Amino acid sequence: MANKNATTQDFVHIRDIKDGVVILKSGQLCKVLLASSVNFALKSLDEQKAILFQFQNFLNTLDFSLQIYVQSRRLNIEPYLATLLERQGSQDNDLMRIQLREYIEFIRSFTTEVDVMTKNFFVVIPYTAPKIDFKRSFTNLLSQGKSVMQEKTLEEERLQLEQRQAVVEQGLNRIGVRTIALQNDELVELFYHIYNPGDITGSAPTIQ
Question: Pseudo-torsion of CA 46, 50, 51, 54, nearest 10°?
Fold first, then answer.
């Protein structure tokens, strides 16, 4: 039986997002990287084997788990159509104006009948701190204050997480996959779309 007192926050596992780090209610920290894709099918056989070998070596060097998340979104075509309409209004050539109008109608009709999707790839890097010595922790709480210790512990865990991030970035770069770490606003946008997949507004950051 459903809990009538449950709120939306009860179903969200995120406690906070701070300095590009996702803090879960379990205490686990996560960094999220946006990764570029590799067109594997267009590579030669030797190149494909080299990529697979490098990826295998990369996985074998890891002593922590990773999550690879693929997100598909329906493409929001409205900003593109708005740009075309603006160009149509400023066009002096009648023929170009007609062609732009017909092109706009084609795009609008096509995207109404067919869902045009975008696909983004993310790598989630977790870090869970080792179990705490509660006796020592209690002593530190009395001597330093709870908030000071929490900030110090969070900073230490964040440094450990950044070390893992550097290992992942270097390993993926060797196989031609570029990455960028998502920052606060980008993380909020990502998780908003995870929990609201029907909303087509917004988009993931791009890798230049």
Answer: 170
**Do 126 and 170 share a structural domain?**
yes
User: What are the pLDDT digits (tens) for 113-161?
Assistant: 888 888 899 999 999 877 655 455 545 544 554 555 466 677 888 899 9
User: Is there a single domain that holds both residue 51 and residue 123?
Assistant: yes
What is the three-class DSSP state of 180? strand
Strand partners, 118: 73
Is residue 181 within 8 Å of 125, Cβ to Cβ? no
Contact status, residue 35 vs residue 121, Cβ threshold 8 Å: yes
Extract the tokens encoding 139. Answer: 């002593």
Tokens encoding 57: 């070596």
Domain co-membership, 141 together with 187: yes
| Angle (CA) 180 37 112, round 5° | 105
- Beta-bridge partner residues of 16: 23
Do 22 and 105 sit in the same domain of this protein?
no
Range of the domain at 177: 12-74+119-195
User: For 87, which DSSP code?
Assistant: H
Number of domains in the chain: 2
